[in-house]
Amino acid sequence: MVAIDGVHLKKDLGIDILLDIELPGLPPTRDKTLEIPGMHGVYDFPSEMDPVPHAIPLRVRSNNMADVQRKVKELTRLLLDDWGRPKNVKLSYDLESNKYHWVRYSGSLDILRRAIAGDFTLPFINNKAWHYSNVENNEIHWDSETVTFDDDYSFETVYVDDEHISSPQTVQTFVNGYAIRPKIIITGSGDNVTFRANGKSFSLKNFTDASFEINGQNYTIIKDGANGFSEKVGKDFLELLPGLNDIEISGSNMDFNLSVIVIDQYM
User: Fold this and answer.
1) What would the pLDDT profile of 192-234 be if each residue is shown by its tens digit?
2) What does the pLDDT look like over 72-88, one tens digit per residue?
3) Which CA distances in Å does 177 have to 10, 28, 234, 240?
4) How far, CA to CA in Å, does 219 sit from each of 144, 181, 182, 186, 191?
5) Closest by Cα among 68, 62, 75, 56 to 17
6) Are residues 17 and 107 in the same domain?
7) Residue 122 needs a FRET pair 20 to 30 A away by CA distance; which of 49, 101, 169, 254 works?
């Protein structure tokens, strides 16, 4: 099974997925080294991951070529925006149906047309290299209506969801995937509120009856619906590591609700 933005190619569009799909186990690496005169070997800088290509072989079967063309057009409509440009879509496979790849169409769509079928390879590129959980960490629990036992999640997940903070304390949250900078939601009041985790910390200027959305992945802070980056003290955003993380909260006159939202990311 292959789905694009929740549309199943076989079930919803009647397009067959052939057996051989090119899905790398890991993205290609982007290695950086420096030759230093007089030193054996090279100086090795940390490597990054390159974008991940996806090539999905498909077959459209029908009684006539006009219907084959119609189904292909239904498919391409999923891939383009209102201006006809390739757009980012969520691509998911049945072997990991609880995760998605953030991809866009990249390449060419050459169709081998036969009497009652058309064969082609659908090319995508995942420029961010990661693939992501379909749900937020606070949706992974025994009573969830979204997560099932077929999903590859740890049901030992610990999360912070609308927890009331009125005194200095430590809260815990669990990361299933790789290290990530979480989204932090705050609603209420507090003075000199500081968050610390894994050697990173930041503070907020005094606030009263305010709401914050602190998005570490995008390096943005929204306060009461407007840009609130100037309300942050310190250059860090929190970083959560795989497994259980302690988040220390300190300050005075604290009376706010806190959520720490993680959408796990994987390679």
Assistant:
1) 999 999 999 999 999 999 999 999 999 999 999 999 999 999 9
2) 889 999 999 999 999 99
3) 30, 19, 27, 10
4) 30, 9, 10, 16, 22
5) 56
6) yes
7) 49
Amino acid at 170: T
Q: What is the pLDDT of residue 65?
A: 78
Q: Which of 206, 208, 183, 210 is nearest to 193 (CA)?
A: 206
Q: With 70 as the cut, is the pLDDT of residue 246 above it?
A: yes
- Nearest in space to 92 (alpha carbons), one of 262, 242, 266, 261: 266
**CATH code of residue 206:** 2.60.120.860
Distance in angstroms (rounded) separating the CA atoms of residues 196 and 218: 19
How many distinct structural domains can be found in the chain? 2
Residue closest to 198 by CA, chosen among 252, 156, 244, 262: 244
**128: domain range?**
2-132
Domain shared by 221 and 197, yes or no: yes
> Is there a contact between 244 and 171 (Cβ–Cβ < 8 Å)?
no
The residues that bridge with 17 in the sheet, in sequence order, are: 58
Length of the chain counted residue by residue: 267
- CA angle 173/152/141 to nearest 5° reads 45
| Tokens (6 digits) for 100 | 């998605």
Helix (H) or strand (E) holding 155: none
Select the more confidently predicted residue: 181 or 117. 181
Residues 13 and 99 in one domain: yes
Q: Which of 111, 132, 153 is the last residue of a domain?
A: 132
Six-digit token pair at 142?
A: 């025994």
> Which pTM value belongs to this model?
0.82
Report which of 80, 75, 69 is spatially closest to residue 111, judged by C-alpha positions.
69
